[in-house]
Amino acid sequence: xxxxxxxxxxxxxxxxxxxxxxxxxxxxxDMCRRWTSSALVTFPAQPGYAALGPVKTFTSSxxxxxxxxxxxxxxxxxRITLPGEMHGQTQIAAGLFDNAAGNTLKLELYIDxxxxxxxxxxxxxxxxxxxxxxxxxxxxxxxxx
Length: 145
Ligand SMILES: [Zn+2]
Ligand SMILES: [Zn+2]
Description:
This protein has 145 residues and is mainly beta. It has two helices and eleven strands, in the order βββαββββββββα.
């Protein structure tokens, strides 16, 4: 995937990032809905992404933070802060980039939290809150594979 450059609504923040895949994900969780007024559509960024400008971060949970433009409020990214193998993994807001980085929506998270009044057209993998939690929760069996 090529390195891409995007910007926030006001242009004060520019973001340079290389997508780790050509897939977009959409999150319908309560926090993303309130943050964006709909769903947060992102792509996973390879390490080394960079931002220039007035970036603010907000600790939105015990395991993640959200970055936004201090000037215009545009959502920039969601980053895992929890220590461990997922630490630092970042989902960059696809809307910062022309044509949503040219990528395709392939996953919807928290589909059971999506409001009834709208939906993305087409078919793709969908995960409920319980399925997302099971994916992120540490193994309770104690096996280390
Ligand atoms: Zn801005
Ligand atoms: Zn979410």
